[in-house]
Write a structure and sequence with these properties.
Layout lengths: L30 H10 L4 E2 L8 E10 L3 E11 L4 E5 L6 H7 L11 E8 L2 E2 L7 H7 E4 L10 H11 L6 H14 L3 H4 L12 H13 L5 E5 L7 H14 L4 E5 L3 H7 L2 E6 L2 E7 H6 L4 H7 L5
Parallel strand pairs: 1-11, 4-9, 4-10, 7-8, 8-9
Antiparallel strand pairs: 2-3, 2-5, 5-6, 10-11
Helix pairs in contact: 4-5, 4-7, 5-7, 7-8
Bound molecules: adenosine-5'-diphosphate and magnesium ion (MG).
Magnesium ion (MG) binds next to helix 2.
């Protein structure tokens, strides 16, 4: 069971319970006062922390170009076998936070990450951590499907080959088939495994990318707006798939769509101006948000 850590009583900002205005509080449009308020809050409203989480992140700060800070003191846990949705206005740091979880920010020159990021209690930024191995444990699926210019088979076999996960061709065949099956794609492509992955439809390509991520048996899959380039039918297929994958993996998904967050996630984190404002059960965030900034966002007042 999750530990319930309630928002600190000494927090200075009012919760939605004390804010009954039906329009945006006038201070919400004054960015400086909102930032001052977010700075004063020591932790997110709701239940950011869990017992025995998969990921424990504390006081995470991220800077671009050495100086521009994009994430401020982010502290939250990510549970096992949960789908956690990261929502919030554009540019508020959702992708930046997500990329901290498998050290993808390392690949952007001038980026600095501070704070504690523990995967099963292990510091993923420790000197002896190999980012390549970490990214096999914490896979990633991007906004735009990005299959390699290789066959469907070779796309899925890429990671297992890189990490030496199969001793012979028949084992590799099994991994490829199982991964495509879990990604809900095998039946559609089994007769053309040697055709280029780039020849598939957008939705199929995204499932191929999910199969490629799954093929190395990751523990966590990060998804950054994975359906925003897809039509509604392909989106529905991916959403069903995410729900099935939850039994085997932890999934962190950034989404622009609040409906999607409400449909597929068990917990939701609301980001605003680089701060984690609120984290709670998805149902609570959408029906009884604890912070007026969350409430303003989910009721469409800004964002
Ligand atoms: N590679 C980068 N270099 C410099 N600034 C960046 C980079 N990526 C993102 N940012 C800045 O960091 C902030 C957060 O961006 P991002 O994490 O992409 O937000 P979101 O995913 O919520 O839209 C924004 O101000 C953005 O301009
Ligand atoms: Mg983003």
């Amino acid at each position: 069971m999750n530990t319930v850590t309630l928002a600190n009583d000494s927090m200075t900002f009012p919760s939605s319970g004390t804010t009954t205005t039906s329009s945006v509080n006038k201070t919400d449009v004054d960015i400086h006062s909102v930032v001052e308020e977010l700075k004063r809050a020591k932790q997110a409203v709701g239940k950011p922390f869990l017992d025995n989480p998969k990921f424990k992140t504390r006081d995470v700060n991220v800077y671009y170009n050495q100086t521009k800070q994009a994430i401020f003191n982010a502290s939250l846990d990510i549970g096992r076998n949960e789908v956690i949705a990261m929502i919030g206005p554009s540019g508020c740091g959702k992708s930046t936070y997500l990329r901290c979880l498998n050290r993808m920010n390392d690949t952007i020159p001038g980026t600095k990450v501070t704070g504690d990021l523990l995967l099963d209690g292990e510091d993923i930024y420790a000197k002896d951590q190999d980012p390549v191995l970490l990214r096999a444990r914490v896979g990633m699926v991007f906004q735009k499907p990005n299959p390699f210019p290789k066959s469907i088979y070779d796309n899925v076999a890429y990671g297992p080959r890189l990490h030496g996960l199969a001793v012979n061709r028949s084992e590799l065949d099994d991994i490829v088939e199982q991964s495509l099956t879990k990604a809900g794609l095998f039946n559609e492509v089994k007769d053309r495994l040697n055709s280029p992955g780039t020849g598939l439809s957008g939705g199929q390509q995204q499932r191929l990318c999910i199969a490629r991520a799954i093929a190395v048996s990751p523990e966590v899959i990060l998804m950054d707006e994975p359906t925003s380039a897809l039509d509604p039918i392909a989106t529905a297929t991916i959403e069903e798939l995410i729900d099935e994958l939850r039994s085997s993996f932890t999934i962190c998904i950034v989404t622009h769509s609040m409906q999607q967050a409400a449909r597929i996630s068990q917990r939701t984190a609301y980001f605003h101006l680089g701060y984690v404002v609120e984290v709670n059960d998805t149902n609570t965030v959408f029906t009884n948000p604890g912070h007026r900034l969350t409430e303003n966002y989910i009721t469409g007042r800004f964002g």
